[in-house]
Amino acid sequence: MEAKGRSVTLFHNTIIVTMDPENRVFRDGGIIVEADRIKAIGQSSDVLRDFSAHVDEIIDLHGHILLPGFINSHVHTSQQLARGIADDVDLVTWLHKRIWPYESNMTEEDSYISTLLCGIELIRSGVTCFAEAGGQHVSGMAKAVDLLGLRACLTQSTMDSGEGLPAQWAVHTTDHCIQSQKELYKKYHNTADGRIRIWFGIRQIMNATDQLLLETRHAANELKTGIHMHVAEIPYENQFVMNTREVDHGTVTYLEKIEFLQRNLLAAHSVWLNDAEIGFLSKAGVKVSHCPAAAMRMLGFAPIKEMLDTGVCVSLGTDGAPSNNRMSIVDEMYLASLINKGREVYKKGTTDPTALPADMILKMATANGAKSILWDDEIGSLEVGKKADLVVVNPLSWSMVPVHDCISSLVYCMRSENIDSVMCNGRWIMKNQKILNIDESCLPFEFQG
């Protein structure tokens, strides 16, 4: 037996979708997990022959599908308790009249409970890692992430100017915004066995001074971390930037002008772009998080195919519960393919069923997600030496059978109910559809605490 904390598990008799650079799929695969990392991967017969005598546990997955944990690259975990309070309203009303009043009155305990609830829903859809889009009380988020066993890039919602800010936020200076995030970085970055990273956040350009933008860029570069920002969400935003920043188009044009676009920027939504701006994103190495459901509710058709065609790394996010209601990355994969195929009809006047095929969608939820959050050296694919962030899918149910093409089935047929087990950092966080690190039945009592 291995020393405590270095247990070795062998999985075999499974379809392994690696999402590695060669897009290897093992129809009868085996994989070795030692502690928190992948030690070997290959055909079942080879893995059993070489390792079965030296492992602590052998698990026969009998035809299930094993793939990398999904990465949700844009989600507001502290908005989970606001699900349903802002349906069917425009974005400005959504922010100023519904969400910001809610968020500004949250306590640390509220954020903790909200992130627990959101995290459970993420795990049940196969997510092992998420990028917080910006919320209140990162301390509460970190506590929940640590307990659930998830991996996350946590971000504070940051604004220092503009209309609609609640009184509690309107007093925040640029210096306060920067220093509070630096303190969060110092306290929580690389905690929870390395599963938590702290990023800098800009909520949106309409509530950010140039000083905040530039100091955020400097601080993030200094600390070698990322920046998460909502970008080009609605036409009003672009018009606002044209009127106040004196550029000829909008947010991305202005961010390019002040040299804010860089490889550690994760731009959420990015719906209202022109061709030149897509080129700016590509040239700078900016990553984009595509949130299909939230976009179609309030924002519009994002030019995803054009971004991918020019080399922009595009990943998938759910956004928050008040703008989507469903925190399922499985649903987002299905929607992303259909919406972007449908957009081709709108754009060209003819159908193109080849737009955003299943393999690209799955890449957006795994390898591209890891690249978007600057963690692709350790997660996003199943490769020797990478972290053991795994999802076990049971395709043997009415929603997925028969499986003629496992990649297509994962994107077009799979539902959250097909997610059987989830491992993060070498530890099960859901097994046989049971969340392991928290008793879900106790959650209602925590609301009274």
What structural class do the secondary elements suggest? alpha/beta
Number of domains: 2
Rg: 21 Å
Corresponding CATH superfamily of the largest domain: Metal-dependent hydrolases
Largest β sheet strand count, sense and barrel closure? 9 strands, mixed
CATH topology type of the largest domain? TIM Barrel
Query: Which percent range fits the helix content?
Result: 25-40%
CATH class of the largest domain: Alpha Beta
Distance between the termini: 43 Å
Number of strands: 17
Number of helical elements: 18
Shape-level CATH architecture of the largest domain: Alpha-Beta Barrel
Q: What is the overall pLDDT average?
A: 95
Strand fraction equals: 15-25%
* Uncertain stretches: 445-449
The best one-word shape is globular
Care to give the gist of this entry?
The protein has 449 residues and is α/β, with parallel strands linked by helices.
Notes on the protein architecture:
There is one protein chain. The protein has 449 residues and is an alpha/beta fold. It is built from 18 helices and 17 strands. The chain has helices at 44-51, 91-104, 108-124, 138-148, 167-170, 174-188, 210-223, 235-245, 251-257, 275-284, 292-299, 304-309, 321-324, 329-348, 358-365, 367-372, 406-412, 443-446; strands spanning 8-17, 25-34, 37-43, 57-60, 65-68, 70-75, 127-132, 151-155, 196-202, 227-231, 265-269, 287-290, 313-316, 390-393, 419-424, 427-431, 434-435. Strands 1, 2, 3, 4, 5, 14, 15, 16 and 17 form a nine-stranded mixed beta sheet that branches. Helix 3 packs parallel to helix 4 and helix 15 (358-365) packs across helix 17 (406-412). The longest helix is centred in the last third of the chain and has 20 residues, at 329-348. Residues 445-449 have low confidence and may be disordered.
